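Data availability (excerpt). The following record was deposited with the supplementary files.
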Amino acid sequence: MRTAILTKTNTKTVTTKLGATEKTVREELQEKAAIVDAKDELQYPTNGEEVSPLFTKEVSLLHQKIERATKPRAYPLFLAEKGAMMLEDIISPLFQMGGEASTETERETKERIVILGTGWGSAAFLKDIDTSQYDVTVISPRNHFLFTPMLAGASVGTVEFRSITESIREVNLGANYLEGTAIEIDPKAKKILCESVVCEGNTCGIDEFTVEYDKLIMAVGAQTNTYGIPGVRENCCFLKQIQDARRIRTAIVNLFERANLPDLTDDQRKAILTFAVIGAGPTGVEFASELRDFIEQDGPKYYPNLLKFVRIKVIEASPTVLAPFDKSLQKEAIKQLTREVNVRDPAVFNLLPEKFKLTELLLNSGVSEVRESNILLNDGTEIPYGLAVWAAGNGPLPITLNLIQAIEEGKQSEAQSVARGRIAVDPWLRVIGGNGDILALGDCSCIVSRQLPATAQVASQQGEYLARLLSQNYDMCPGFDEEEGILLPPQTDTNRSKTLSESIAAFACQAGDFAAPFQFLNLGVLAYTGGGSALAQLQLTPAEQARLKGTGKIGFTLWRSVYLAKQVSWRNRVLVFFDWAKNRVFGRDITR
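Predicted structure:
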């Protein structure tokens, strides 16, 4: 029996505030866990820029074999492999995984896997990992999975907050969950130092505890990158968490109620009801579109005399919107964003000025500073605003930089010229510079040989991939090749019969003794553009010309169908469906 315990809790109170509310202490811990030096934000702008890959030099037969195995598998074989996996999930005992939580005795006999984060990668991993083989513990300050693509809708009341969240405990009942924030990782001792908010009566404080692991999976995601621009953190709202959406929703109603007060000039009302969205990627475009729907559909009922003062300004530093999309779809998005206002009530429509423009798109407009009541652009233009939402780029979390620094100097530090603040991993998602006991996936990681977009789709597939490797007992640390100085690829027990999907992958890779490396299956991208229209770009094959594109009502039907199907549970599907139906019949709820 193992003597080491999974959660070695050396609880010591770091901060105790007499009379401090739980909300106050949680916000303090959240702020502390998000603080990154401005120089780090500028040094590590993880925005998917292409950089030359490392480690491409062929040296030996082993190296050549690994190079061959890590090349993208032929697409027909890759699809056959994915189809075989789906079949195996139906007929395999893996489908029966999970169950009741492990007892303390059982935990001491299993290999310990600790997952940091409860995002897309973590949820996918938890769904597929065999907890009868491993003692799995999840550590995160957030005790739920969040369907992030619908945060924009939640921020204006199209869906409710709880409809797009699911308890992380519900995802896999066989896993343990610890509510805390990882602040330091010691790869040599295999320990994680965490902080958690603890309340006794009316007093809340921050306590420390330590967790030991055999394998660590980094899935903490990323935070919004301000690029060191003054005033962004102090004056802008972000759109990453439920708290962000709740803050925006409250702020929107507050601004309308404030603008409705007497003794204000028209210019003051116009400034109060100017909504600035900085960043025209999928998050920025979808938020601007959802906000426009709220103003067009619910504004005439609640604020008919204020609609003429409302302005939505989408500010983007590049010359176009929705960079991941085809150019024809980008043009359609611009057309939808800047279309004429659609107010069905003739009495309210007549109150609007001639040539009224609800949404203004400012391309090639970089932001130099965000002040308390106005935004300063690079060309000197000042834009007064009531609410500013920052949706521009991702940056590393402090715990991600902590792990990068904790790994000894060598290939991890060399790989930062490519990874740029993300954790550099090999094609099997093992952290470069480690010995295979630390793995990373999602937005906090970067496969240096083949960079992937920072999307939920990528993180989810990586989580499924890792869970399958570990559940099939692949050895992630088979040893080092001393001559080459490289960690050997994951290997499985030669006495175990390969599954059909493994056999197809082994044939495609021409390396039967290695695990097939991770390969991303790009299914396409979706974006809502308001007014019951959306963009859908489905990827049939890797070729750029093999794209199925949909706009308008067709795109909207695909968008809603996919988002409904991708919900993590039937509970979420039912709640989201009823939110849509309720919104259609009764409108959005503007109570605070």
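Summary of structural features: The longest helix spans residues 242-259.
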